[in-house]
C-alpha cells in the first residue's frame, strides 16, 4: 500500500530528481507550468514543432536552465500521429529511461458557428486536444504502472463542464478529456499513478485573443468572474507543482478548477 509520505510540508513539494515530459510549453499556461516544475527541482523535456532549428521555447528553456534544472527539447509535429506515437519512447531515452510526470498541455482552438463548423477543423481540434493526450497518457501508463509511481496531468477546461459558444469541437474534446482523466485514474490509482486534470477558466493567453479583443464579450465575462479579473499563466504554477508532487499522493481523478470562482457562480 502506497501511503502519503510523512514529510515536512516543504519536502512534500520537492521534485528534485523527477523528470517531466510536457507538451504545449512554448508559451502561456504550459510555459508557466514548466518553469514552476523546474523551480521545484524537476528536469524538463519540452516538445517543439519541427518547423525550425531555432529554440522555439527559448524563454522557457532559459528559465529552466536558470533554475539549475536540465532542459531537453524534442521535435514533434503533434498533428502527425506517427510522430506522436514515437514521442514518449524518445523522451524516455532522452531522460535516461525515466519519466516521472507527464503534463498534457498542448491545445488548439477553432471558432465557428456550429452550423458552419468545418470538418477539417473538427478533426484538428479533436486530435490535438484529445487523441494526442490519450496516446501519450497510454504510453506513460505503460511505463509508470509497472514501476508503481507516476503523475499524469491533463490540462482540461471550463468546457469540460460547459458547452461554450461557437467552439463545439473544443467543448467535445475537453469534455472527453475530463472523462478520460477519470477513466485512467480508476485503473491506475491502485498502482500509485495519480491522474488528474487542471481546468483553466478565462485566462489571458493568445488562445483567447479573440475574446480579449471583443469589448462586449470581455466585459460580460469579466463581470461574471468573482475574482474580478482574468487569470494569468502564473496562476497555474502552484496547481501544477501540487499535482506533480508527493503532496497530492491521495488526489486521484480530480478536476482542479482554476477559474477565479467562475464555476462557483
UniProtKB/TrEMBL annotation:
<protein>
    <recommendedName>
        <fullName>Ketoreductase domain-containing protein</fullName>
    </recommendedName>
</protein>
<dbReference type="InterPro" id="IPR057326">
    <property type="entry name" value="KR_dom"/>
</dbReference>
<dbReference type="InterPro" id="IPR036291">
    <property type="entry name" value="NAD(P)-bd_dom_sf"/>
</dbReference>
<feature type="domain" description="Ketoreductase">
    <location>
        <begin position="18"/>
        <end position="191"/>
    </location>
</feature>
<keyword id="KW-0521">NADP</keyword>
<dbReference type="GO" id="GO:0016616">
    <property type="term" value="F:oxidoreductase activity, acting on the CH-OH group of donors, NAD or NADP as acceptor"/>
</dbReference>
<dbReference type="InterPro" id="IPR002347">
    <property type="entry name" value="SDR_fam"/>
</dbReference>
<comment type="similarity">
    <text>Belongs to the short-chain dehydrogenases/reductases (SDR) family.</text>
</comment>
<keyword id="KW-0560">Oxidoreductase</keyword>
<dbReference type="Pfam" id="PF13561">
    <property type="entry name" value="adh_short_C2"/>
</dbReference>
<dbReference type="InterPro" id="IPR020904">
    <property type="entry name" value="Sc_DH/Rdtase_CS"/>
</dbReference>
